[in-house]
Design a protein that fits this description.
Blueprint lengths: L2 H7 L4 E3 L20 E4 L3 H14 L2 E5 L16 E5 L6 E5 L4 E4 L5 H8 L4 E2 L13 H7 L6 H4 L6 E7 L5 E3 L20 H5 L8 E8 L1 E2 L3 E9 L2 H13 L5 E5 L1 H9 L2 H15 L3 H14 L9 E9 L2 H17 L3 E3 L2 H8 L16 E10 L3 H14 L1 H6 L3 E9 L3 E10 L5 H5 L3 H6 L7 H20 L19 H14 L15
Parallel strand pairs: 2-4, 3-4
Antiparallel strand pairs: 1-2, 5-6, 6-10, 7-11, 8-9, 8-10, 12-14, 12-15, 13-14, 13-17, 16-18, 17-18
Helix pairs in contact: 7-11, 7-13, 9-10, 13-17
């Protein structure tokens, strides 16, 4: 079926057929097929019409938010796929300060939402990822996401109250209290079975989210910061688990020594000075901003040369006494685990500039490709998960060296129950169209272009399989499942049967995000 036929059926729907190479890649993968077109709906009505047309015409629909995914979740799996770009559905449709919820369309970014909530002194419990200048609310709740607020409040799903979802039958399902026939206010999630949860983390396999309602809480009035250097990564994981279990931090993360040094040294003094200016400009309180800027300028990033595994934490409170009490407990935990205090420049900058531009963040400073591979495990297994991951890198070291593959880590706290291990893998390879698209003309001109390296990618696939096998043995879970992480095949038979039945119920023709969740790779 031709794109012209789809355009004739849906004349008001914007369809793009130029520049499709950009939509044939995500942050990590290039698809075997390009989409035949990119559809850009502007409202729920156009989404419903597109789904019905796709059913009738035998098309597949791949769903894209901000494009920051690295698990192939929105890449075409066949030669009859229309990519649905939901970024134009970017309205905040309801901000209810009294009932403490906000309802947004799927294309609203976390940066956009944070700025809209700031004048009200409110925030969502989970409030975005590093890529929040591009990453959307719809993409995050579909894929699953964690970082800002996650150490105390968990991931993106935990902040959702209700949804409106267009299923593969072109039907609209409202969840939570918003499904009431009399008054559909989305103020309460768990009235009866949790139907909202069924569509969270589904990677678009069960439906297209057109409205997301999120909890609102008071924004913190006081913040405090701490950073510690650890020689023993296992001890760091144990400290992070205790900090999460005590709900002491809003964000608590760790990076390996090489990543700390390269991230900081690559930016240099001029970047430090630019950061000082941004810290002052973006601070809610000018005095606080000047203080933070002075601390960053004095400590700089040169201390990174002296650190081991760097743990950084941001602590919040409704006043300085609450923040100070939490910080005291956090410091005691870190010191008891062997942590050595270092200047807390990293979390200060991170909080003042939570959503930095992604133009050069998806490649290393020298233009190498990067891949991300993560798991989330119970607090008690964090050190084991790290050790097993590092064991794979050690075991495969000769082959990795042959292909020029290096690695680092991002370690994280996920609410009171879990910690995360994320391997940051780097190698020499040609950049993908998405990497180049986000760069300025000057940045693209200065980039060292590297040749295509399929042999290294094959080695990366072997490495990925080996690490996933170790994590599987620990019962590790994942967000951003897409088609990268094993989900369906790792579920118990009754759960597999339920998932299959849900897919058949919501998407009987299999047109939505084919392969997501159910990939057997």
């Amino acid at each position: 079926m031709s794109v012209a036929s789809l355009a004739a059926r849906l004349p008001d729907l914007r369809l793009l057929t130029d520049g499709l190479d950009l939509f044939g890649t995500d942050v990590s993968y290039a698809a075997d097929h390009l989409p035949i077109a990119v559809a850009v709906p502007v409202d729920e009505g156009q989404v419903i019409a597109l789904v019905q047309a796709a059913r009738d015409m035998g098309l597949s629909l791949a769903l894209r938010g901000g494009g920051m995914s690295y698990s192939a979740g929105y890449l075409a799996t066949n030669d009859r796929t229309v990519l649905v770009d939901l970024s134009a559905m970017d309205r905040i449709t309801d901000l209810n300060v009294t009932d403490r919820y906000v309802t947004v369309e799927p294309g609203v970014t976390w940066h956009q939402l944070r700025e809209a909530l700031r004048p009200h002194g409110l925030i969502t419990p989970f409030w975005g990822t590093f890529s929040g200048r591009h990453a959307t609310v719809g993409g995050s709740v579909s894929q699953g996401a964690k970082f800002y607020g996650s150490a105390s409040h968990g991931g993106s799903a935990e902040s959702v109250l209700a949804l409106r979802v267009v299923t593969g039958r072109a039907e609209v399902i409202a969840t939570g209290s918003a499904s009431d026939t009399a008054r559909n206010s989305p103020f309460f999630r768990n009235y009866g079975p949790d139907l909202t949860g069924m569509f969270l983390g589904d990677c678009g396999a069960f439906g297209i989210k057109t409205r997301i309602s999120l909890i609102l809480i008071p924004a913190a009035e006081s913040e405090a910061y701490a950073s510690f250097s650890f020689d023993d990564p296992g001890a760091l994981m144990g400290a992070m688990a205790q900090i999460g279990a005590g709900l002491l931090a809003s964000e608590c993360s760790g990076i390996d020594p090489y990543t700390a040094r390269s991230r900081m040294a690559s930016q240099g003094l001029m970047a430090d000075l630019r950061t000082v200016g941004q810290v002052v400009t973006q601070s809610r309180h000018k005095v606080s901003g000047l203080r933070d800027a002075a601390l960053i300028a004095l400590s700089g990033r040169r201390f990174a040369k002296r650190i081991g595994y760097l743990m950084s934490a941001t602590v919040e409170g409704q006043d300085r006494h609450e923040a100070g009490r939490k910080l005291t407990q956090l410091r005691r935990i870190a010191r008891d685990a062997g942590g050595v205090p270092v200047p807390a420049s990293v979390p200060r900058v991170q909080r003042r500039i939570p959503f930095p531009p992604m133009n050069t963040a998806l490649l290393t400073p020298t233009g190498k490709r990067m891949a991300w591979l993560h798991t989330v495990v119970p607090n008690s297994l964090g050190a084991d998960a790290f050790a097993r991951t590092e064991g794979v890198f050690t075991r495969l070291a000769p082959d990795l060296k042959q292909h020029g593959i290096g690695h680092g880590y991002l370690l994280s706290t996920h609410g009171p129950t879990a910690v995360g291990v994320e391997a940051l893998i780097r190698w020499s390879d040609a950049p993908l169209p998405l990497h180049l698209h986000l760069m300025t003309e000057a940045e693209g001109a200065a980039l060292k272009l590297r040749p295509d390296n399929p042999a290294a990618r094959d080695m990366l696939a072997r490495l990925t399989d080996a690490i996933l096998a170790e994590w599987r043995d620990l019962g590790g879970v994942h967000v951003q499942i897409g088609r990268k992480y094993p989900y369906f095949q790792t579920r118990q038979p009754p759960v597999q049967a339920l998932l299959t039945a849900l897919k058949a119920l919501h998407d009987p023709d299999g047109i939505l995000s084919p392969g997501n969740l159910f990939s057997l790779k």
